[in-house]
Fold these 3 entries.
Entry 1:
Amino acid sequence: MEYFGTLYIAGIAKDGIVVVCDTRISVTLTSDVEKENVLCYWDYVQKIYTFGNCVIAVAGKQEFDNKAFSISFYFNRFFERYSVDEMVPSDFFLKFLNFVMEEFPPEKHPNLLIELNTLRMIFCKYDNGEPYIALFNRSKPLGACVNEIGCLWSSDTIPLKTFDLNISSSSLSELLIKVIEDEAKITLEVGGPVMSILIPAHGAIKWINNEPTRSLRELRSEYQADLEAGEYVIQFTSEKNKAIYYGQTEKKPDLF
């Protein structure tokens, strides 16, 4: 089975950087994500991460190394070694991959690098007083916005249309949330409550919409416990697909 989802968008407003992201994971039998191929989905999955003065949004796998750890497990250890304040946005992803390979060598973790290379990430922060958005796709830098009010980047890997240069972060958040909500109307792989966060030009990062209510989970067992406790509710697209899903997984619901 394949696990899909995630539409994130980051934009630079006159008073800060806004990052919005959906919270849905969808499951298909193949990599061909179409409405009729989605077996099931669940919402409220956090895909925006904050570390110091930076925000990272992630699309792609949520579990790694034989499904033992979540992406936050590796992020937390990376930022224990490297200062967020000193991190150059354009260098982030390569430095992150090198760190993971050093700490979790391929001979002991053969699939980890392959799994990490499926990720799409956006890394946002103020760098030397300038708003900076760096986009990475499968370990390669795809582009960046530096001090460009009106710039938008999304997990679709292409820059979107620019907008009113005088737009505030609150107005930009509303605009981008609507973009994601409109996308959710036409595809099951995007949906759930939309999270929105602001990196202000001055001051601390703050959530605008749907701040996460649970702490980040690092281990598969923690996610599984949440699922069994009803924190996530699996929505099946048909009884047939429910049977297919449980036929492909363990008897207990499989979160990722």
Note: Residues 2-248 form a domain with the Glutamine Phosphoribosylpyrophosphate, subunit 1, domain 1 fold (CATH 3.60.20.10).
Entry 2:
Amino acid sequence: MKLYESKIKNGFFFIFYKLVYVCVFALPFIFFTDLKIEIQKLEIWQWVLLGLITSLLMYFYLGITNNDVKLNKSQIEFRRKLFPFNRTTKFKLNEISKITMQHDWTDSILNDFKPKILKYFIIEWVLKLILAEDYKWLKIISKGKSYKFYCFGLEHDYYDNPRPYFEDLFIELAKQGLNVNWTKNNDTYYKELTVRKEELQEKPVPNKT
């Protein structure tokens, strides 16, 4: 059985990075407006309450966006680890009709949005403030029903990230003969992985006698 771990620490790093990012952009607005005065009026208990709410939201985010994936020759298993979101879901491979994988939320968001300059502004200056860069998920179609599992903490093929990668999972699923595809196939990177999948799933040509 192969394990693809969605690491909680990767989610913590993302949240910390985003909080710093938002604060840097918010500081000029705070210090040059009346909001600075209002913030100074906050009492200790209000800061504590704000911290607790932020912590709960962080925990909720980490709980629902991290599924470990276990794969063997007969089944695939998805497991959440954090209480009370911990849950295990299993699928027999021979009952799966289709698997779709997404690596990056920009692969599918606002595809038909115009004008392009406004789309660029929304993605780069609004959505990137709140959405994870490593927006990874798998959608399983089994027995006519659809199931989606987020794996934000699973490593991807980038510089010196430790294996296994999200891309390795794609290749392993292809080796099992499953109908697995990316949400975006027109990018060079995804094309290369798709070609690799097709090579693995090519049926051997019988010898002619």
Note: Residues 2-201 form one domain.
Entry 3:
Amino acid sequence: MTFRVTHIDMHHRRRRLVVRNVCNRAAALAWVEQMYGQAWYLAAMHQIEGN
């Protein structure tokens, strides 16, 4: 599965990225927090992959 993730930290630094090959939303969020640290705001949307 592929998710589009938005991560905003306590300094209001926004990061938007695509996380691929994860089994669910929780795994995508955990991967991003592991990379960038604890988030002030964190959201993930499932991206439907086209042909």
Note: The two ends are 14 Å apart (CA to CA).
